[in-house]
Amino acid sequence: MRPSPKALFLAAGLLLVTSIGFTDADQPATQPDEQWFLIRMSGANVGTAAERWSRTGSENVFQAQMNLSFTRMGTPLSMTIFTEEVTTPEGAFLRARMQSSVSNLSAVATLKGDSVYYETTAGGSMRRRTLAWKKDAMTEALARERVAHWLESAAPETTITLFDVAEGDFRTQRLVRGKRMNLPVGKIERDVIQVDEYDADAQTPSSSTWYDAVGPHDPERTLVSQLGVEIEILRVSAAELEATQIEPSFDIIKRSMVPCPGFPIPASRMETVTLVLDFPGTLPPASMTGPNQLEVQRAEHAITLKLTRSSAGTITIPEDQQAVFLRPDRFVQSDAKEIKAVADSLKAATRSDTWVLARACAAWVDGHISKKGMEHGYASAVDVYRSRAGDCTEHSLLTTAVLRAAGIPARPVVGLAFSEPDKAFVGHMWVEAYVNGWRTLDALNLGLDPIRIRVYAPASSESLGERDLMRAYGTMAGVKVRATEHQSRK
Questions:
Q1: Burial call 81-102: b when 16+ CB within 10 Å, e when fewer
Q2: Is the Cβ–Cβ distance between 71 and 251 less than 8 Å?
Q3: Model's pTM, two decimal places?
Q4: Cα–Cα distance between 479 and 235 in angstroms, integer?
Q5: For the chain, is the Cβ count within 10 Å smaller at the N or the C terminus?
């Protein structure tokens, strides 16, 4: 698993939040304004973005498109994300849409009265929901005005609530004023104010943005950090963008690997290993204990984890809380007829043993996905069933769907698995099935199961959105891992 392409939805959203503007009232509707951005990953030029806004007599239209090209373990991958928001001339929300080649995902949100009608399509599966419009929510245009006024004041922080069309829900951001500094932007050094952006209740920022300290308060640079990869959005001129060479050979997975000195080889012989995780900043607020890992000690800037091949302890939840792990959602379509048919056939073959059934579901997915490669973005379970192609993300989402269709509560899990050739941890996704407690499954056999670091396990794949993943992986940004002791099979 890469540092998630979903994180790039966040980057697209940041373009909306921090850069939207409108033409003057006397600007002709046929002459839209545009801005251009260069996108870098760890200093490598991997893509471009453009913003376009125009005004008619009754509507303001804002559009943003992001195009990226890089590699994953040497396999080329291209992504395109398009977003649009339409508002009244006064800035009130009317509708929004989003399309992404990353996940074959599209979404449309329309405001009618006090309700938002949301429709999302992934893998040929359509989901609809209706939400009440939050009275304190604002559009990106009004959010930009709020940020500009706040920067001119002395207040240390402000809060804005927006509707996120990629996620189909409202999100609240807390903006915290940082220091004023001189920032080299292209060939010019600019006087800027750093602003750290936090999701509601988050202890680590999802991103940092540098605004022009001498108005207008347009962002000069936005920075997102995930597993050692800095995703940078830099505002440039059209001429600068045209002269920039894109570097599609940048390998996002190799760049995001976390070395682990002392990790014993071969991993397949290990029964247990103890790791010390040294964090540069705040520790993850919740315990890192999971089905196959035990948080042994927590110091000021370090956590000691004991990873085991067998269960580290039974983790149970009440029966009335298990239903959420059986529900279908837009990426895990466990109610799709083809997936239900697979689950029914596996249930008939395995009869009454639930754990045997769970393992059979994972084994079926491993055999069904015949084209195993890194050229995929983020496909839904139905997409994967039909294409029979994917990496750890696709294996995990299809496994979760088959398990839920078979009546076994399940959830996708993101974390870090150890790569022996690279002697480092790399981002990975697997599954937890609830069979008398949470138990680890992996339909993509890396020979490490379950010696890995569990970071985040959402109830629904709806929570594999950019904010959740950025918050989860954000707690691991800059972490250093070392092995201190281990026990191997004889």
A1: bbbbbbbeeebebbbbbbbbbb
A2: yes
A3: 0.82
A4: 30
A5: C
Tens-place pLDDT, residues 324-380: 999 998 889 999 999 999 999 999 998 778 999 999 999 999 999 998 887 766 788
Q: What is the tens place of the pLDDT at every residue in 145-202?
A: 899 899 989 899 999 999 988 888 898 999 999 988 888 766 678 888 999 988 777 7
Structure token digits, residue 197? 């952006």
Strands (E), 188-228: 188-199, 207-212, 219-226
Entry field: residues in the chain: 490
The answer to whether 431 touches 410, Cβ cutoff 8 Å, is: yes
Provide the CA 101 distance to its chain's centre, in angstroms.
15
Whose tokens are 């990106």? That residue is 140
Residue 148: its H or E element: helix 140-152
Q: Which residues contact 267 (CB under 8 A, 6 or more apart)?
A: 418, 420, 447, 448, 451
3-state secondary structure 222-262: EEEEECCEEEEEEEECHHHHHHCCCCCCCEHHHHHCEECCC
